[in-house]
Structure of Polyisoprenoid-binding protein:
Amino acid sequence: MTTLSTSPDLAGLQGDYVLDADHTRIGFVARHAMVTKVRGAFTAFEGRAAIAGDDLSGSRVALTIQAASIDTRNAQRDEHLRSNDFLAMDQFPTITFVSTEVRRSGPTTVAITGDLTIKDVTRSVTVPFEFGGAATDPDGDFRIGFEGSVVINRKDFGITWNAALETGGVLVGDKIVLELDVAAVRTA
């Protein structure tokens, strides 16, 4: 039996959760050559959350991403992104996010503030999330969904490589949109 709820009552969501990697996307969008966008995602990650009732004040979230799992559907570009010019994945194999505050920001929205660490540089980031719903799947697992995005400046994390274009401008934009489509399963 599957039950579905998009109720904003977050109190019913209390518990510990693990990310369902098969149904979660951790993606990004970057400006390329000043005229288009490149979209990509990380394919290897794990995360946990503890939801502590309707006010969410005792809630916490943690995410670890394997930098080597970056995928923009272009092998040459992905290798460059893994290099010291960008993620320096040999020296910094993981990207992490650990919440410092979780709060309800509206009837169906949550703001999660935390420490985002890329290349051993940590900055505070607040990600607004929209509650997508809750359901008990056919296997009896209780799952929840949230969608969120935030814009960061890659230079704030020591990712400064670029190339000038003959027509003016640069090859890679500074602003990166992080996109999180999250599915999580409550643990027993």
